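anyone else get weird line breaks when pasting these?? whatever heres mine. first is seq + tokens for prot A
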Amino acid sequence: MNDQLKIDEKLFHSRLMLGTGKYRSLEEAKDSILASGCQILTVSVRRAQSVKINNINTLLKGLDWSKIWLMPNTAGCQKAEDAIRVAYMGREIVKNLNYIDNRFIKLEVIPDPKYLLPDALGTLTAAEYLVEKKFVILPYINADPILAKQLEDIGCATVMPLGSPIGSGQGLKNLYNIKIIVENANVPVIVDAGIGAPSQAAQAMEIGADGILTNTAIAKANVSKDMAQAMNLGVKAGRLAFKAGQAQREKFAQPSSPVTGLVGS
């Protein structure tokens, strides 16, 4: 409780955030969300608005929103204008769940259909507009330190650099750039996309990331509930290691036992 994550003016004790897609069943999604201990759950506005998709609406109605903070996202938007329009739709979704002060939006502007890489200029344009309209913006970006700082400067509540492409499970392919973002950021840095295992989540937290957002690694695991719990532990372990401070690396071996009074000396 003494190490809470603060986004805008909202405090969270969990640093793990989850997505809601790709699960094999509604029950599996619910069990995984609960096992993860997450407090922030993100859902695609387009999925939630679709009358053809009943599971996501049932899921939203079946969770305890006094314990979980819903963060609508603009997934599927290829242009800034689309993302802005969908953000307003997301605000209506949270109103329907009786939120009073939830203005969170995970901003995604992704014109690339193959690698699903975000558009820097489109993201910056949409973020600037939405921040002015009093949305709390959490932008999904490439691991670009300059863009991260620009988004912070215009008032974004976090920056969310990708570790590797969405759903790839490749881990932290952009580790060096993420380190630079963490070093320079005055807002929380949430590593989003590419996390495929608890060890990768721990690695991101060990370098000072403030949180992790993952979906595919849990939803596509053989036992999603167990993977959700493992991710929770990985995030906690990485955070504790970062706070503890790692021992300095040495070029040569360093004896762990006393070097005085050796036999034969």
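and prot B, same format (seq, then tokens)
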Amino acid sequence: MAASPSALRRAGNEEFRRGQYGPAAELYTRALELLEAAGEATAEERSVLLANRAACYLKDGACSLCVADCSTALELVPFGVKPLLRRAAAFEALEKYRLAYVDYKTVLQVDCTIQAAHDGVNRMTKALLEKDGVHWRQKLPPIPTVPVAAQTRWSGPSAGGSGANTSVTALRGEPDQAAAGTERARTLKEEGNELVKKGKHEKAVEKYSESLKLNQECATYTNRALCYLSLKQYKEAVQDCTEALSLDPKNVKALYRRAQALKELKDYKSSIADIKSLLKTEPKNTAALRLLQELNRT
């Protein structure tokens, strides 16, 4: 008796767990072929199998095949966390950092607690800053807006083999849990603020980082940037200010602190550009005017 698609999928999962990625991919392919031949495949079933096969391709370094399978999986069921994470990792391996950044940011819209996506965003931000300079965001493709319905879709069965290592947690779709997360983020930010007042900038960074995992807030980014400035971690300060400006493009603190960090990194042209942007919003900002004078003397 021929194996059923579900049996082939389970066998593929077992091969994946054993590190046999080629045989696992073949089993997922056979399951897909059977489903399509029967004409009974749901979009969810096909998306799961494609995402599983993509995980095999990613493990074997076949990144272009991984991207193709993930893209098809996402056409079938939009905003799936596992296909997005796997495609992001494949894009990253292919050095397509802008596309990887977009996928990691999309994952965080679906579930802001996924550490793999936070780490990916941080890596891509650093890579793009080095590649394209401080205005790297202007070269990004548009980041899709994830509808609320998609944010709860993935609280059901896992879309992938259990052997796939993506560090994905279950989604928090319930309003009371979301509110609790926001409240916890606020508490962590306030604890960070108290540590800053005591001059404990390293410990404050830890609190702000925990807060940002729960809620990406502009003020938390600018607060952490202030700590990084004090710790002379200027690239990290630039990165945080850039994230803050993606949330609030005219934020005065983010523009000023990024200008300070860029000055220390000797990127005087970009620093002056930030101060001039700030002065369009606050023409009489004395700290900004003073910094501009210093920059014009360099």
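btw re prot B: The two ends are 80 Å apart (CA to CA). Residues 152-176 have pLDDT under 50 and may be disordered.
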